[in-house]
Specification:
This protein has about 130 residues and is mostly beta strands. The chain has helices at about 105-110, 120-130, and strands at about 5-10, 15, 20, 25-30, 30-35, 35-45, 50, 55-60, 65, 70-75, 80, 85-90, 95-100, 100-105. Strands 1, 3, 4, 6, 8, 10, 12 and 14 form an 8-stranded parallel β-sheet that branches.
């Protein structure tokens, strides 16, 4: 339970060159040039991250150049993300900028289930009967 109340802050005047790993929550206001792995991340508006971000929960509002993987991802309107986004639950505020692909974590396994759907065009033939 001690980890739930523990968090680390990277201040706006801090620049880190290298990977960052935290077992607890991380609040980033500074600049990180490297990958980040943590339980939860909150990114400040003036923050910049160049690298992959992996977290259970992520609330992004600054600049990210790299992929983001999170179970719960919130992209705020001030965010500028250049990279692919992987998530279980996603919230994007109007005005957020994302240049990359979106892919749900859970549904990447479910994608092959979509293959049997080409057998359904017979139902489309039934549509004119409904229309007339």
């Amino acid at each position: 339970m001690a980890n739930n109340s523990t968090f680390s802050v990277i201040g706006s005047d801090v620049i880190i060159k290298g990977d960052v790993a935290a077992s607890a929550d991380l609040h980033v206001d500074g600049t990180i040039e490297g990958d980040i792995k943590c339980a939860s991340i909150v990114q400040g508006e003036s923050s910049s991250i160049s690298g992959a971000v992996t977290a259970e929960s992520a609330r992004m509002s600054g600049k990210v150049t790299g992929s983001i993987t999170a179970k719960e991802l919130v992209i705020l309107k001030t965010a500028k993300i250049d990279g692919d986004v992987h998530y279980d639950a996603l919230t994007i505020e109007q005005g957020a900028q994302v240049d990359g692909r979106f892919a749900p974590n859970a549904r990447t396994v479910a994608a092959p289930v979509a293959t049997p759907k080409p057998a359904e065009p017979a139902k489309k033939g039934a549509e004119p009967l409904i229309a007339s």
